[in-house]
């Protein structure tokens, strides 16, 4: 597919989804929102892609909705009313139900709606010079869905501070790592994509079917109490029994060779 606001490419079994509006700090306009839905679905549907890395071109990772567009087109936030009221937020991996592993590689400023992509990633890497801020209340908007998602990763007070202080503070990558928003800080910053590719390749060596089932089980646990989560996890476990990868895995281990996983 052709994209105007994104770059979508493959490197081996790793799919890359790259925000590509560097002149606007990778802010989301209406077109990017539409293209994100197509791009996530394209990579999710490609049997050759086992892991997806999400990053940005230029000095910013993602800065949320394009506020200039909202302020000048006469429509403003009303354009999003129907999608929010129906909870159809199909520009992020979680809301689209993507069950392939997703790595967010935060390369610079991550602001506002950009926090969706951090909250929804399975693993988050950040360049040492990356920073995080939530300016929603500073432009008269409610901070809700992104920050609620972040409460699954980090202490509630830290999320509340970021949401309530707005654009008047930025959280460093080091602090985000301390709080659990970020899993790894990459230094020097220009190694970020290399580090993300290396990690993605490690993950991609595993059974694609087992990876997807594992992700569904673990994310599903956040939606349930302990007993219900374990029951749902057990269903994912049993659901993979009889899959060719369950035969190939032990055979490859016994024969001391790399496994040949079933595609898809």
What's this entry about, in short?
The protein has 264 residues and is of the alpha/beta class.
Notable traits:
single chain, 264 residues, alpha/beta, 2-enoyl-CoA Hydratase, Chain A, domain 1, Enoyl-CoA hydratase/carnithine racemase, Enoyl-CoA_hydra_C, Enoyl-CoA_hydra/iso, catalytic activity
Can you offer a commentary on this structure?
With 264 residues, this protein is α/β, with parallel strands linked by helices. It folds into two domains: 6-204, 2-enoyl-CoA Hydratase, Chain A, domain 1 (Alpha-Beta Complex); 208-254. It contains eleven helices and ten strands. It has helices spanning 30-45, 67-72, 81-85, 115-119, 145-150, 156-165, 173-179, 192-204, 208-221, 226-239, 244-254, and strands at 6-11, 14-19, 51-56, 60-62, 102-106, 109-111, 123-127, 131-133, 171-172, 184-186. The strands form two sheets. A six-stranded mixed β-sheet has the order 1-2-3-5-7-10, sandwiched between helices. A four-stranded mixed β-sheet has the order 4-6-8-9. α1 (30-45) links the parallel β2 (14-19) and β3 (51-56). α9 (208-221) packs antiparallel against α10. It is globular. The mean pLDDT is 92. This is Enoyl-CoA hydratase/carnithine racemase. Belongs to the enoyl-CoA hydratase/isomerase family. One of its GO terms (molecular function) is catalytic activity. InterPro entries: ClpP/crotonase-like_dom_sf (IPR029045), Enoyl-CoA_hydra/iso (IPR001753), Enoyl-CoA_hydra_C (IPR014748), Enoyl-CoA_Hydratase/Isomerase (IPR051683). Pfam families: ECH_1.
